């Protein structure tokens, strides 16, 4: 009898193991029977709006906008935090006096994309769904079932087909160029490098910009790039950084990778540049600045389009090209320079170049092709 | 061309190879012992992830790297005990249990991570990390000092574990019994050896070692935790056990070789040599398949590996 009990207990345990395993990326909190099986979702910092008011009549303008964000990676990735930061800023601005709230669902694999997006839409809670990565195919498969929802997808590797599917992208190459100016000035070895994730347009564009910026102040500088073939492998990024440092690189741009700073911490006088969001706090001893992408103008376009659709009944008509903004339009910037590491005259030069980019005097070529 | 050759014996490449090999060696040694007792634990990836999280969160919150390591090891052992209950006590199919353990471990680690560290648009959390433990005098030897004697203490421990394990497995009564359980559990049972107990112990040891591998990834290297922190290292460790034909010396050599290939391709890229580095990254797996073919006739694979033992059944 005792033995049977133990076996039953163990069977329950095994079963719940499988259940939890299946449930770890479910987007619907209500579907999870136990807290341990709840999905990896986090509500927006603002409290969710209480649904006390009845649906406004058709003639009245909407007062709230509820957005779902799907992250292919985890929310801690700077590709994700840059989107969360932009959402927080836009929410605070409250365009059209809208009460904007958002929820995110993270770590959704591409294979699960279609299912998760459909389930998210089927909740009926969301006016806008931003799938923050290469999800255009998943969206096209289901968007006709949800014509009232504004769908969006981001970054390179997508395809624009118009309708209610909006393609947002970013142009960080100008900010990377500015970081390159600082790295070019700081280099004593005559070599700088980049630890990059994949040879991917969204990665190569800023790496080329970074190297171009360094060459603009130091034409003879040598440049090296290492791909670690992973978005998240800090250990690999660290070893890649160590190999570049061994070869003589003394500034490393961590292009969509994490962990490079650790290699710099263990070396003498090696600097790193963070990517996509401000990463100085991670390692203030070595991070001189960060290349920041700003989704704010893109988000505002989405909100404008949604507003026009809701209030004037205009059909969604997304451009087939990507919606992206240069630095002068607020689409990117360089994080405040680390004054403890970068001499004041270098900071002044970077700021001067930044002003030139903003007023159009300096044009930085966008080159998403092979890094040279 | 000279770059390609020089990188082969570059001090930085060799030192990097040993760092990359450390978590692979730790996990592979543990898995080898587990498999010697007849249990195929495919759950290494999940165990490493849970342990990396356990180390990270305690190192960060309790501000103690040593407690972090302990907690990572504890997490690894806990997950292995779950595996032991599944496969040794209730005799669930080992492959299925191992795969479920991965999904469970990775999902659980991420769930707990998010519960402790909510993300609303700020920076990612980072813990302290161990400094390299340079051995006095020896680390000053040119070349060798930098490659071998300027590593993390856990690297030294992993390498020293090899002869200790060899002795334990091959020169002690306990080691003989453990290996016998993997080869002929029925005979062991008749001799009065507790087969299930032995398998529990072997799995706990495997969990301990995978726990150290996870701790190495988080609190020795980057001080960051990502849900993908294991990044396939659990699977590579499983491949190394096969590549090493379940023998300690070859497992040590295999780990170092796999680490070396990785360090070598990174160095070639850093030198600006235009090589298809993806090929070098894939090479370990191709070599593992080759080793399987070559070792087919003189395999040291435990005879009862992956087969649940039922008393009285033949």
Number of helices of chain B: 13
Uncertain regions spanning at least 5 consecutive residues of chain A: 1-57
CATH 4th-level superfamily of the largest domain in chain A: Response regulator
| Chain pair sharing the greatest interface | A-B, 68 and 57 residues
Task: Give, in spatial order, the strands making up the sheet with the most strands of chain A.
Answer: 1-3-2-4-5-6
Strand content of chain A: 15-25%
Our count of domains of chain B comes out at: 1
**CATH top-level class of the largest domain in chain A:** Alpha Beta
| Radius of gyration of chain A from CA coordinates | 23 Å
- Roughly how much helix do the residues of chain A carry, as a percent range? 25-40%
Name given to the CATH architecture of chain B: Orthogonal Bundle
Shape of chain A: elongated
Largest sheet of chain B: none
Strand content of chain B: under 5%
Overall average pLDDT of chain A: 87
* Residue windows where pLDDT falls under 50 for at least 5 positions of chain B: none
- Give the overall average pLDDT of chain B: 92
Determine the structural class of chain B based on helices, strands and strand pairing.
Answer: mainly alpha
Q: Strand tally of chain B, please?
A: 0
Structure, explained:
The complex is a heterodimer of chains A (372) and B (314). Chain A is an alpha/beta fold. Chain A folds into two domains: 148 residues, Response regulator (Rossmann fold); 150 residues, Rossmann fold (3-Layer(aba) Sandwich). In chain A, 38% of the residues lie in helices and 17% in strands. Chain A contains ten helices and twelve strands. The longest helix of chain B has 28 residues. Chain B has a single domain, classed as ABC transporter involved in vitamin B12 uptake, BtuC (Orthogonal Bundle), CATH 1.10.3470. Chain B is globular and about 60 Å long. Classes of the chains: A alpha/beta (372), B mainly alpha (314). The interface between A and B is large, with 68 and 57 residues.
